[in-house]
Structures are given as C-alpha cells and as structure tokens.
Amino acid sequence: MNKQPVSKTLHYTVLILLSLITLLPVLWVVLSSFKPQSELFQVPLTFIPQDWTLENYVSSLAAGNFPVYFSNTVFVAVVSTALTVLINLMAGYALAKYIFTGRDIIFTVMIATLMIPLQVIMIPIFLQLKSLGMLNSLWGIIIPPAATPTGVFLARQYLVTLPNSLIEAARIDGAREHTIFFRLILPMSKPIVATIAIFSFMWRWNDYLWPLIVITDNRKQTIQQALANFVGQLQINWSDLLAMTTIAIIPVIIVFLAFQRFFFSGIAAGSVKG
Q1: pLDDT-based confidence at 269, cuts 50/70/90?
Q2: N or C: at which end does the chain have fewer Cβ atoms within 10 angstroms?
C-alpha cells in the first residue's frame, strides 16, 4: 500500500481544518453584521442569521463621516505603500548591489533597529513632526513609517539573488543608474514588491495607535479610529460596529488576493536566500 497519498490527504485535511478554525472569527463577524440587534444577544447564539438585514450597513454608513474616514484611510494606505515599496527597494538595491565602505555595518545596524519597540521612538518622532508642522495631517501618518527595516531586509535578501551580469551589461550599453533601477530591477522584483506592498498596506490600514496620536481633527481620522468611536463609555453599538468592521476587512482581502501569486515566492526568496 502506498502511504504517500494517505499522508498527503492527512496533511491537507489538517491544513484545511486549521484554516477553518482561523477563519471562524472572521466569518462570525461578517455573518453577524447581517443580524438585527436583537438576534446578536439571543440565547442560544446563532452562527447564521435567521433574519437577514442590511439595516446595520445603512445606519453605520449614515452615522458620522464614514465615507470621509474610509477615503482618508485609502489615501494613507495607498500613498504610504507606494513610498514604502520605492524607498525600501532602493535601499535594498544599494545594500545588495553597491560596494562601499561600511555597507555591512549599515545593514547590521538597520536590522538591529527591529529590536527597538515602537513605544520607545514615538515621542522623538512626535516632536520631529511637531517641529515640521506635520501634526494633524495625513502626511504625518504616512511619512514616519515610509522606510522600514523589515522591508529593507526583504528587498536586500531578494535582490542579492539577481545576477550582477545583467546590471553590468546594462551599464556597458550606456544605461544610467536610475534607468537600470526602474527598467530592469523593478520589473524583475515583482515578488518582493508584492510582499512589501501587502505588509505595508495591512499595517497602514489597520494602524490605530499612530493616527490616534497624530490626528486631532475628526474629519482627518482613519477608519480604525471611526470603529473605536462606536465603543461608547456606557454602551457599544455592536450592529453598526460589526457592519463597519466587515467593510473595513474588504480592501485588505482585495489587496492580498491581487498580489498573492507573487507573495509566497517573495517571502521565500527574501527569507532564505542571500
């Protein structure tokens, strides 16, 4: 009897079960967003709505400035992701393909910053933004995390695997450095670009603490702050909160599905090669 098909079937069965367990809370949130308020707290609890309704979505969209919060978050996530990809890829390219004094030291120090908690540098960054007049501005959310040591590390580890002969051939043909980067390196780096883009978009979309510190104007708040506004001092509007949470999940899923075919190869190449 061949044990390999049985082993593979058992392997995939376990993975499917673990995936279902992981997705169960998300499915509960999505399905509960279609329940009326009274059904959320009935005993026994129901997983699938008995009375489907869109009233939660209507009331949550009508409450406050949800479209404004949503557009603010889209702007922050998209612009921040574009800057993060560009800056990290440039830094990774320099550390992977240029030879200069102190290169390895710079890379080591950059990686060492991963051990520094965000709370340690929040006050210095806040004071710097204040001196630049960027407080209470969406750019105050975008600029500080534009370059990340994680992104530089992944980009550098991926780019060292690209053959130097291609770059040398481009230089012999008379291509300038910015031409080589944008027309040769960038198209060849789709896996790692997708990986950094997914991570950056998720971090910026789900970020709550930093926008809370920087933004004081209600019309400049992000969607995570809008979700927190539904948690009152005496009560929580669970129906509207679940509906808004479901809407907030959708962009992250779309971005992941759009880049997933590059994501896993980028993670593998950026983690184990170098």
Answers
A1: low
A2: N
Q: How far apart are CA 151 and CA 211, in angstroms?
A: 21
The angle that helices 3-32 and 238-272 make with each other, rounded to 10 degrees, is: 140
152 contact partners, CB below 8 Å, separation of at least 6: 88, 91, 92, 95, 110
Per DSSP, the residues of 203-268 read HHHH--HHHHHH--SGGG--HHHHHHHTB-SS-B-HHHHHHHHHHHHHHHHHHHHHHHHHHHHHHH
Residue-wise pLDDT for 108-136, tens only, equals 998 898 888 888 888 899 999 999 888 99
Output the CA angle 99-105-111, nearest 5 degrees: 115
Q: Which residue has the tokens 């599905």?
A: 257
Q: Which domains does the chain have, with CATH numbers?
A: 53-272 (1.10.3720.10)
Q: Is the pLDDT of residue 39 over 80?
A: yes
